Amino acid sequence: MTTLPHDPWLLTPGPLTTSLKTKQAMLHDWGSRDANFIETNRRMRSEILAIAEAQDTHVCVPMQGSGTFAVEATIATLLPRDGKALILINGAYGQRMTKMLDYMDRAYMALETPEDTQPSLTDLDATLKADSAITHVLVVHCETTSGIINPIERVAEIVAKHDRSLLVDAMSAFGAIPLSARNVQFDAVMASSNKCLEGVPGMGFSIIRQSALERCKGNAHSLSLDMYEQWVTMEKTDQWRFTPPTHVIVAFDASISQFVEAGGVAGRNKRYSNNRQILVDGMREMGFETLLPDELQAPIIVTFKMPSDPAFDFQSFYDQLKDMGYIIYPGKLTVAPSFRIGCIGDLGEAEMKGALAAVQKTIDKMGVANGTAKAA
Ligand SMILES: Cc1ncc(COP(=O)(O)O)c(C=O)c1O
Predict the structure, then answer these.
(1) Is the Cβ atom of 174 under 6 angstroms away from ligand 1?
(2) pLDDT tens figures, 304-337
(3) Residue 72: which H helix or E strand, with range?
């Protein structure tokens, strides 16, 4: 793994550590109408479709901004103004979709489960059966709030059985957790440049079923977030509608080619799963407890319960790890104090072991006997 000497390792769910090659790709300037840039943009879009095995059925529509922009734009475009969404919520990113729908003034209902619990498939089935007004189901693939993996295949089967449309926020899973359009029926999957494909932040994208998108003219409430217009313009002119994030795109193109060379989804899944294993085993040895049982834990980010030892102070823990070159992430749970450590980015065994050694050093210095969350 190569990085610049002064960069700390980002054990966070994005922005994350990128390779030197990816950073170096940004050392040039491109005109947005330049043939080389247009070719790069085409290749990026087609590689993204290939990752989801969606070339025959879907199109890739990129969107400037962070991942949230792509999620909001996709919902705004695919959900008709008189449609109704059912949102499966088990964390902050499911919650965020309700806020988007409030802003857009679209009808929705939610099925919520606790942050450490997958959505109830029985409730999903019963709700779709009972409410024929629901047109779309919205779900998060890996809820980054906790790191839980949601059962997308099962959700998709139920949604398809009821003949509704499925939109998946796969922001933190795409590229590392398999999701193929050949065996999962979805109308849209949203993700961004700076998660498991290890690009830099600045753009999101959506893989949208072409036959569904063709019917979406005029749905969006927002000019800049209209994925239909973004797609039509790009297909017609090879241009982005508004200034493209050129450096982000060339870096993304470079990171995708490294992704392909490293074995695609299977390769990434293997490296991240290994990172997770090293992390979880090492933290457990020090007494730390994971929020999730192993079978629900995605190889993306791990939530640890806050230790109960009064000598443990999270801010000081964070600062000391940072001084040793490792940046971790605060918790986002509403139910219990916690912190998170990511497994994604240009990181491998050496970095995970280095982070564990830094954690051990820090708790020793703090006088924390072990990381257990249970009160003595
Ligand atoms: C599942 C999920 N959805 C949406 C987002 C929002 O992405 P962004 O912060 O890039 O807007 C994130 C960010 O981590 C995420 O993990």
Answers:
(1) no
(2) 999 999 999 999 999 999 999 999 998 888 778 9
(3) helix 67-78
Which homologous superfamily does the CATH classification assign to the domain defined by 264-366? Answer: Aspartate Aminotransferase, domain 1 (3.90.1150.10)
Q: What is the pTM of this model?
A: 0.97
Return the ligand 1 atom nearest residue 93 CA: 3
Distance 307 CA to ligand 1 centre (A): 27
Cβ of residue 14 lying under 6 Å from some atom of ligand 1: yes
Q: Find out if CATH 3.40.50.720 is the number for domain 26-261.
A: no
Q: How far apart are CA 296 and CA 303, in angstroms?
A: 12
With a 6 A CB cut-off, is 64 part of the ligand 1 pocket? Answer: no
Q: What are phi and psi of 145, to 5 degrees?
A: -55, -45
Cα–Cα distance for residue pair 48/205, rounded to 1 Å: 9
Q: Per-residue pLDDT tens for 41-59?
A: 999 999 999 999 999 999 9
Domain locations in the chain as residue ranges? 26-261, 264-366
Q: What is the pLDDT of residue 4?
A: 53
* pLDDT digits 0-9 by tens, 338-365: 999 999 999 999 999 999 999 999 999 9
167 forms beta bridges with 138, 188
> What's the whole-number mean pLDDT along residues 235-258?
97
